[in-house]
Write a sequence for this structure.
């Protein structure tokens, strides 16, 4: 600590050390006490009182002043945001590979400028894993869900294998904090990649959007996707490798026909998929959302509501069908940062971290909101 206190470092350097790789344990320790108790101090009077009585002010006046400025940022954030209660929801971390996709789905984030249109053409695996490790530290014990996405992650198997190997080398496996490592795929080269996923990825979300192959080809804009017989082969191979697979269906809204909904869930179960995930098209203004649809399902004896969560950025439900097959319903928004912060983090192929799918809000530059720890979710007042 004495070395840092005796140096006069530019604030940009200090900031990068604390919030970049977090290799500076001094700065991390200085802020940890406050951040660990943030809900307790997340109002103007209590936070100002803590600033006035900081027992750990460093001797270096420049550093003390800059750290105080950062903490004063919290005062501004407290005027604009509230800490969500409960705050301990899983933090979604998306690792976005710049791999190509053979499909052309109308509701894809990339088609709408998502993930910064992947301005990088190569992958810095070390930077991606370093960023993921930084997120784990900034989250301060909050559970993490890691999702590998793209592009189509399986279109260039070498890129996918290299990232997974680098994650293992970095010690990123499922543990008390990393609750799950998943991948979203349309199945393009999934069979060839399956053995490389074993022991590293537990869950594969297979984008389907229709149970009818011909209709599916129209949605994807290509026939280079698995047909129904190949889906069975994929789920059987995944099961041998200890990997669960789920079918994903994007709908414009939840005004769908109940019979078609039930047939689709039954189809997924018969084809070896452990669950069905229904997601609203965030680029369409939904007429009927999850809440209304879940209420309808309460009258159906085949479905039992297990979880229901309604927040500023989403509405989410989990049901069981006939006591076994899991059915997920998610009604989200195009950009969660318009309503909340700390919901998810996007890590691009160059290792840069963002709070939004369009990669406009870097994790290290929150503007007027300062540097809020990812341990919490913040909703705009």
């Amino acid at each position: 600590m004495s070395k840092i206190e005796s140096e006069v470092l530019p604030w940009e350097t200090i900031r990068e050390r604390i919030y970049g790789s977090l290799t500076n344990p001094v700065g991390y320790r200085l802020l940890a006490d406050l951040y660990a108790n943030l809900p307790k101090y997340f109002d103007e009077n209590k936070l100002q009182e803590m600033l006035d009585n900081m027992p750990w002010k460093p001797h270096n006046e420049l550093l003390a002043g800059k750290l105080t400025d950062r903490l004063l940022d919290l005062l501004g954030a407290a005027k604009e945001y509230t800490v969500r209660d409960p705050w301990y929801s899983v933090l979604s971390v998306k690792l976005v590979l710049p791999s190509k996709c053979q499909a052309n789905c109308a509701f894809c984030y990339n088609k709408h400028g998502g993930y910064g249109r992947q301005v990088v053409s190569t992958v810095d695996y070390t930077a991606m894993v370093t960023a993921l490790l930084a997120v784990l530290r900034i989250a301060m014990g909050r559970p993490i869900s890691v999702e590998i996405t793209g592009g189509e992650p399986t279109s260039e198997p070498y890129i996918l294998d290299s990232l997974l190997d680098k994650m293992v080398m970095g010690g990123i496996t499922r543990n008390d904090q990393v609750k799950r490592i998943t991948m979203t795929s349309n199945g393009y080269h999934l069979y060839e990649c399956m053995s490389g996923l074993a022991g590293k990825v537990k869950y594969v979300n297979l984008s389907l959007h229709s149970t009818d192959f011909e209709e599916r080809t129209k949605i994807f804009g290509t026939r280079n996707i698995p047909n129904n017989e190949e889906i069975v082969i994929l789920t059987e191979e995944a099961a041998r490798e200890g990997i669960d697979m789920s079918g994903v269906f994007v709908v414009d809204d939840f005004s769908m026909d109940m019979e078609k909904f039930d047939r689709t869930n039954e189809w997924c179960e018969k084809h070896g998929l452990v669950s069905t995930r229904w997601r609203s098209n965030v680029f369409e203004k939904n007429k009927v959302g999850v809440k209304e649809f879940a209420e309808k399902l309460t009258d159906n004896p085949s479905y039992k509501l297990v979880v229901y969560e309604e927040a500023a950025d989403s509405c989410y439900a989990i049901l069981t069908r006939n006591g076994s097959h899991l059915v997920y319903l998610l009604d989200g928004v195009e950009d969660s940062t318009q309503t909340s912060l700390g919901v998810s983090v996007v890590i691009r192929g160059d290792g840069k971290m963002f709070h939004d799918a369009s990669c406009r809000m870097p994790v290290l530059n929150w503007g007027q909101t300062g540097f809020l720890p990812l341990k919490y979710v913040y909703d705009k007042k």
Residues 1-30, 55-59, 114-119, 365-370 have pLDDT under 50 and may be disordered.
